[in-house]
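Title: Comparing notes on inverse folding

I've been comparing how different people in this forum approach sequence design from structure. To keep things fair, I'm posting one structure and asking everyone to reply with a full sequence. Here's the target:
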């Protein structure tokens, strides 16, 4: 796949802090499309998807803005599914991370239909495996992993027409360093493979990525769910829920380069970029730099 379809999902209905709705604009200002085109890729920006505004309401039965989150996810599900059917690589520009439910549900359905082996790499500071019962806030951007694995409101777990959309062995998480107490239990029960920051400290990014990518082969569809708060907060201030102690610039580059080396990247979302928290768009520019590496930009001819 050397055709890329950029699509924006300008919403923060699933987030705690406002501003991720401006993520797609910041990535365009940082010339994401142009940067990918310069790598020889055919890039089409299909513009922004539309959905309900953020009503800024309190949670209802442990879930905040469920109706709006469902609507946005259905739209994302359709758009990502459409790109895949047209043999374009969908690059979803978020938007908050709750939209990964619709995006990954579409990718999972595509893989079932095409007989591909789906592997999801979840790059994040947080595990995003809360439920309505465990979440301290009710914000659904803290729940997409649980929803994709079949735990959550039916309106979200069933979006791809099959619940669960994903099996635990199809996802692994990298960079995790902030997990709520109940969430730790969920991760253990769900059986999600987690390479937390301690793992990266002890074994380095190279071995971590070798482990995360082991078994990736010609039939693999590799999906990357890139929450920008994966990056160390000193490097990437432009996120709503920054956490210190994340991967350095070099570690993040190596992570992206090793994914590119597999040649199996087939769908991507870049989530939680929050220009309201950024400094002179530096986080968006850093993200563009990293996404270039993810699509194979390297220092030397390899
Ligand atoms: Mn996240």
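Reply #1:
Here's my take.
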């Amino acid at each position: 796949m050397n055709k890329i379809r950029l699509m924006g999902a300008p919403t923060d209905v699933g987030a705690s802090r406002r501003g991720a709705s401006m993520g797609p604009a910041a990535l365009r200002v940082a010339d994401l499309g142009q940067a990918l085109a310069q790598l020889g890729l055919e890039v089409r920006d299909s513009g922004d998807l539309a959905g309900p505004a953020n009503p800024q309401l309190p949670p209802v039965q442990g879930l905040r803005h469920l109706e709006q989150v469902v609507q946005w996810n259905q739209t994302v599900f359709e758009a990502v599914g459409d790109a895949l059917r047209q043999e374009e690589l969908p690059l979803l520009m978020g938007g908050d991370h709750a939209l990964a439910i619709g995006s990954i549900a579409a990718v999972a359905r595509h893989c079932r239909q095409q007989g591909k082996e789906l592997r999801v790499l979840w790059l994040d500071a947080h595990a995003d495996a809360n439920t309505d019962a465990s979440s301290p806030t009710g914000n659904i951007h803290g729940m997409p992993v649980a929803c994709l694995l079949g735990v959550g409101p039916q309106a979200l777990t069933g979006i791809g027409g099959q619940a669960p959309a994903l099996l635990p062995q199809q996802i692994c998480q990298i960079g995790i360093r902030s997990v709520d107490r109940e969430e730790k239990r969920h991760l253990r029960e769900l059986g999600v493979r987690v390479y937390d920051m301690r793992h990266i400290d002890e074994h380095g990014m190279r071995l971590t990525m070798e482990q995360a990518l082991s078994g990736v082969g010609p039939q693999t569809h590799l999906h990357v769910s890139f929450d920008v708060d994966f990056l160390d907060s000193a490097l990437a201030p432009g996120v709503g829920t920054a956490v210190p102690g994340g991967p350095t610039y070099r570690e993040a580059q190596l992570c992206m380069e090793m994914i590119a080396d597999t040649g199996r990247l087939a769908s991507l979302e870049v989530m939680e970029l929050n220009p309201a928290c950024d400094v002179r768009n530096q986080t968006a520019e850093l993200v563009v730099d990293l996404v270039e590496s993810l699509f194979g930009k390297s220092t030397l001819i390899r």
